[in-house]
Amino acid sequence: MKYFNRICRYSMLACLILFLQSGSTVCAQILSLPEGLRIVAEKSRTIKISGSDEQIAEADVQAAMSRLLPAVNASAGWTALTHRPEAIFGPLSVPVSERNFFAYSLSVQQTLYDFQGNASRYDASKAILSARKLETQRIRNFAAIEYVLSYLDLLEAEKMISVAEKEVEALEAHKVNTQSLFDEGVITRNDLLQAEVKISDARQRLLTVKTLRKIQASRLNNILLRPLKTEVVLQDIEEPQGVSVSSVTVETAWELAEQQRAELKIADETLRALGLEKIARKSEFFPRMFVRGGYDFTENRYQLHEGNWSVTLGLSMTLFSGGLTQAEIRKLEVQVQKLAEQRAKLVDDIRLEVEQYLLQSVTAKERLSVTQDAVRQAEENLRINRVKYEEGIGMGSDVLDAVSLLTVASMNHYKALYDLRKYEAAVFYAIGKDLLEVYR
């Protein structure tokens, strides 16, 4: 056991020394795509803000429900009068109340029927709550696609660094051969100068892609609500995650999007809420039936019964409100028409978005197939030109061109690979799939 503890201490010490010496993340924790998605879902500020809107909508539901329940009122008071109340009976005055007295009352009132007014308001508030929950779902999925694309951008930047480093290594190896041939007097200094210029250009590109990688890492940290300078080590994705979209037709994708996109569900719930609110407004044209019961007590020794129970069955109706109800109904009708047009436009926009991402994913898949062959051909071309140059039957410019060709082919390959993964993620988002389920 003591040997095991000693090995653990030595391992931790080795990690610390390597970290301090290289300034890198030798022992940094590897971040996977599903793990990052869980962090985004739990910590995203936009999701928390939307959750607050849900709580507000829940309070509105409780407020609307209160109108369906009985209203209980109680009051109590003590009254002091300057003069004792008295009634005149001919030449006499008779007291009818005490000058100082105590009184209290308790009443319960319940609306029996109001032509679906309060019930419609309650159903409308539940529809709004459902829309708020769907909005949270939409924001969660939007935050997820933002993270997925940033994650893939960072992976792509790392691959570009690898390609740029290999280009520098290949050019430096070529420079060694060129220097050897120049020392032997086989070639002129011009070939050596060309190699040095190419190395300078390659190093500049390497610096550029490293800077891009730092920017992408800071962006990913920002999404994860971590310090921007936190070092990021990603787990690569060997294969596209989730269900393949290559066999999905445009028509099927359109149908799935119309069934699953949260934006369309939000529009439907909002339309339902507006319809219910219109019913509630129309109910104000009709009377409201209610029943009220209570008990009243007034301290008065001159009165036969100080306390009294009462039951009232009544109707109440607003006869004139200056056209307020009609104006509110017209406003709701216009809002319904506006939202219906917005929903139709949203369907068209979503269809265009789905088709665009599907076509781009198909194109990226074809590009990936083409670039795989191009990389192999460029590697073979570089090998042949190196052999010819080392044997003195080739030119240095051919080797430099072959290195540049391999670099371009490799970059195109990785560009196509990560474009495919990004467009597949975009298709999943466009058809309304939950990305936390797709990339779990």
Overview of this protein structure:
The protein has 440 residues and is an alpha+beta fold. It has a single domain (30-71, 115-289, 324-438), classed as Outer membrane efflux proteins (OEP). Helix content is 67%, strand content 13%. It is built from 10 helices and 8 strands. It has helices spanning 2-22, 33-43, 45-66, 117-183, 189-223, 250-260, 262-282, 324-390, 396-430, 435-438, and strands at 30-31, 71-80, 86-89, 92-95, 100-113, 233-234, 288-298, 307-316. Helix 4 runs antiparallel to helix 9 and helix 6 (250-260) packs across helix 8. The two termini are 38 Å apart.
**Which homologous superfamily in CATH is the superfamily?**
Outer membrane efflux proteins (OEP)
As for the number of domains, it is 1
What portion of residues belong to β-strands? 5-15%
Instruction: State the helical fraction.
Output: 55-70%
Q: Residue ranges: pLDDT <50 for 5 or more in a row?
A: 1-27
> What's the number of helices?
10
The CATH first-level class comes to: Mainly Alpha
C-alpha Rg, in Å?
39 Å
CATH architecture: Up-down Bundle
CATH T-level fold name: Outer membrane efflux proteins (OEP)
Q: Count the strands?
A: 8
Which structural category fits the helices and strands? Answer: alpha+beta
Please summarize the sheet with the most strands: 4 strands, antiparallel
Strand arrangement, major sheet: 2-5-7-8
* Terminal CA distance: 38 Å
Overall morphology: elongated
Kindly report the average pLDDT value.
89
